[in-house]
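We modelled the chain as a single entity of 149 amino acids. Its sequence is:
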Amino acid sequence: MAGRHFDEWTVGDKLTHEIRRTVTEADNLFFTVMTHNPQPLHLDVEAAKESEFGQILVNGTYTFSLMVGLSVGDTTLGTLVANLGYDKLVMPKPVFIGDTLHATSEVIALRESKSRPDTGIVTFMHEAVNQRGEVVCRCERSALLKKAG
């Protein structure tokens, strides 16, 4: 089990997750179609060329999902009871086909669960960063985690 239990975290803990992912045309196409998103910026090369981006823009919900997925192995794998919420989601820079993303996480809050004494809530600040060092996605994730003991 790679994830940490609630009582193994400290506010200020920072991780740079080793797994990286280069976004492919297939990733963007499949995710966009699976979620029934008809936005031409994600699907239509000609329409995307006419946009301010000049090319296909990767679906933002894919970027968000990938960011969280890249973090799971080091944070909550095997220790998660439930994700409680995602807050303050922003996408300060666009993602394009061929961009390589990695994720970072920082613990920004810890709180014992009032209703479940064997768990606690960890709030992470996750960021997805491209190969140019630009933050392309950021959010806070609150996760209910098991305690170690």
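As a brief sanity check on the tokenised model: The mean pLDDT is 97. Residues 46 and 55 are 8 Å apart (CA to CA).
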